[in-house]
Automatic annotation (TrEMBL):
SUPFAM superfamilies in the record: SGNH hydrolase (SSF52266)
Species whose genome carries this gene: Euzebyella saccharophila
A Pfam short name: SASA
The UniProt record lists the keyword Iron: no
Domain (Sialate O-acetylesterase): residue spans on this chain: 106-352
Taxonomic classification: Bacteria, Pseudomonadati, Bacteroidota, Flavobacteriia, Flavobacteriales
Stretches of the chain forming a coiled coil according to its record: none
Origin: domain of life: Bacteria
Record keywords: Hydrolase
Protein name: Sialate O-acetylesterase
InterPro entries reported for this sequence: SASA, SGNH_hydro_sf, SIAE
Length: 461
């Protein structure tokens, strides 16, 4: 036998042996969290026809599976209420994998752009960073950071590992997500798993599935006209393909999202784009999980009013997206910095949303005042809000209301609180038709409800 032929046989045998071994996606590993009270899917790759046994230590149950012709096997395991640590053993002909220190609890996907990616030590960091890092000893909170990856087509796996929350790991993880988990874990006393796949500067278009653009010609036209940037890919669906798709078999409780700054110049289609993106994720997972998001904060954008338009698009989106909620953060803005360092209140407000809407564990108000309707009465306009109990102004007068007549010219309005309504007048608008609030890039209005939550920007048309 010639040396080259012998070498080829050795290579082929080695490849066959490698294929025969059980392998798992990276989302399964030591220190992981599985969603509680679920039929949770565990899957991987093995030699075609290989018989595997998956054993879960919390109940001692054994699940048998035979690898089909696709070489991808899967089993569904029944998870208990919450707890751990447990282990999961996957046994095959060639090898055995044991997943250690597995917790059962609530798993949340944390996505978006830089304000979600932002850590306690990124650039200027966060408020009170040193103290927050020191006390971040929560072994029942676990982190999985998806490393940056783009892809032209949906991927079956993605890079990342699970870590236990500690001062050392917390400082390099999403601060918003950490404060979100800390609040929920403290209230419910169950393990929390966080999967963070945010990418700074990313537009919403890169997070949508390809079907969003195949089914909506208007969104497709805008998406494929984006110009390259130095901080994020802009090719539609590239981050969904590389950083989301491989997770869609993994059970989650819901998603928290902080994104929009990179879409202010395309605010006109954001409500539709965002709602279609959320819908495409839910379709990929196969169920309508909660989706809670942050309205972008005031910031000094180059083009006037684009930030206000985007905030209004987000306000409308939370009305049209089922099982969703929005938190307003206009009161923690740093208008010269697009990254407000107060990530504590952002995480707290998202957590309170989840505690009330998803877990039914919180009695308080979780929304700021949201525009409901308005009624013109001569020279006066009466504005009605949802979530308006205890309307108040943090200051002597209420700011940032404007009125316009049929000519569309806007003028500042004098505002008075009457119960859960606002009464507006303007000497320059004799016959008011329209009303708007917080309508500038840098507007930091002072209207709140009794829960201390700020009112959202809006325009009545």
């Amino acid at each position: 036998m010639k040396p080259n032929q012998l070498l080829l046989i050795i290579v082929l045998l080695t490849c066959q042996l490698a294929v025969a071994k059980i392998t798992l996606p990276n989302i399964f590993g030591d220190h992981m969290v599985l969603q509680r009270n679920e039929s949770a899917k565990i899957w991987g790759w093995a030699q075609t026809g290989e018989e595997l046994t998956v054993t879960t230590s919390w109940d001692g149950k054994k699940y048998k599976v035979k690898t089909p012709i696709t070489a991808v096997w899967e089993v569904f395991v029944n998870t208990p209420e919450a707890g751990g640590p447990f282990n999961i053993t996957i046994e095959g002909f060639e090898n055995e994998i044991v997943l250690n220190d597995v917790l059962i609890g609530e798993v949340w996907l944390c996505s978006g752009q830089s304000n979600m990616q932002w850590t306690a030590t990124t650039n200027a960091g966060i408020d009170n960073a040193e103290e927050e890092i020191k006390k971040a000893d929560y072994p029942n909170i676990r982190f999985f950071t998806v490393e940056r990856r783009t892809a032209e087509f949906p991927q079956d796996d993605l890079p990342g590992t699970w870590e236990v929350c500690s001062p050392e790991t917390m400082k390099d993880f999403s601060a918003v997500a950490y404060f979100f988990a800390r609040r929920i874990q403290g209230e419910m006393n169950i393990p929390i798993g966080l999967v963070n796949n945010a990418w700074g500067g990313s537009p919403a278009e890169v997070w949508a599935t390809r079907s969003v653009f195949e089914e909506n010609e208007d969104l497709k036209k805008d998406a494929y006209s984006l110009k390259e940037t130095p901080w994020s890919p802009v090719t539609p669906s590239y981050l969904y393909n590389g950083m989301v798709h491989a997770l869609t078999g993994f059970k989650i409780a819901g998603t928290i999202w902080y994104q929009g700054e990179s879409n202010v110049s395309r605010h006109g289609n954001y409500t539709k784009l965002f709602s279609k993106t959320v819908g495409s994720w839910r379709k990929a997972w196969g169920y309508e999980f909660p989706f809670y998001f942050v309205q972008i904060a005031p910031y000094k954008y180059d083009t006037p009013e684009v930030g206000a338009y985007l905030r209004n698009s987000q306000r409308i989106a939370q009305k049209v997206i089922p099982n969703s909620g929005m938190v307003v953060v206009s009161d923690i803005a740093t208008i010269n910095d697009i990254h407000p360092p107060n990530k504590q209140d952002v995480g707290l407000r998202l957590a309170n949303l989840a505690l009330k809407e998803t877990y039914k564990k919180y009695e308080g108000e979780v929304h700021g005042p949201l525009y409901k309707s308005h009624k013109v009465d001569g020279k006066k306009v009466e504005v009605h809000f949802d979530h308006a109990d205890g309307l108040m102004a943090k200051g002597k007068t209420i700011t940032h209301f404007e009125l316009a007549a049929g000519d569309g010219k806007w003028y500042p309005a004098k505002a008075k609180i009457k119960d859960d309504r606002i009464i507006l007048t303007s000497k320059k608008v004799a016959e008011p038709v329209k009303v708007r609030f917080g309508w500038s890039n840098t507007a930091e209005p002072n209207l709140f409800n009794e829960a201390g939550l700020p009112a959202s920007a809006f325009i009545s048309e």
